[in-house]
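Re: that chain you flagged

S.,

Sorry for the slow reply, it's been a week of failed gels. I finally had a moment to sit down with the sequence you sent. For the record, here it is as I used it:
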Amino acid sequence: MFQIKRLKYKQILSIEELEIKKNQVTCIIGQSGSGKTTLLKMLNHLLSPDEGEIYYKGRSVFEWDPIRLRREVVMLSQQPIVFAGNIRENLNIGRIFAEKKRCDDHYLIQALKLVNLEKKLEEDADSLSGGEKQRLSLARVFLMEPDVFLLDEPTSALDKGTEDEVMNSFLTEASKKGKTVVMVTHSVEMAETYADKIIQIQK
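Prediction finished late last night. Pasting the structure tokens below so you have them in one place:
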């Protein structure tokens, strides 16, 4: 799905060759500041390398229309984004960005269950805790139905038990739907549990 060749970016990344396969969970691990998030952002052209090529579906990401690319390859940042309004509006706004029709309440509630978030759709999204906002953002991204999920530390604000429940549920459902997941995680244990492939960035 992604091929990277002779990529260089500042003094942060130097990758001679790398392939990220379709319909798999790929985890990127490494020390803080090693370039994990930088690499993730390059996969949907939020950042450009100084040298080298990145191909998505056999075509250079530089040739893709950025908006179309980011609808197919959706990134969830480590800091959850919450929009003004209630939970229903926050879930559906992702669908609007993706140019898909709004989901009815049944599907929105199913998405909340997927991330273990027991809240009413009418509740103010801004009143949620940090961990709840993170799960809301994850549910919103799931409802966008992209081909690829780019997840940057998606459970960093959760306790271990909740983290396991959420990721197991999310990744199982993503696998059923034939999605590709590329996830940055600080947890080697999580990578070893869920990844089909682990990419370790060093020095």
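What I noticed first: Strands lie at 2-9, 13-20, 25-30, 51-56, 59-60, 73-76, 148-152, 180-184, 197-201.

Talk soon,
D.
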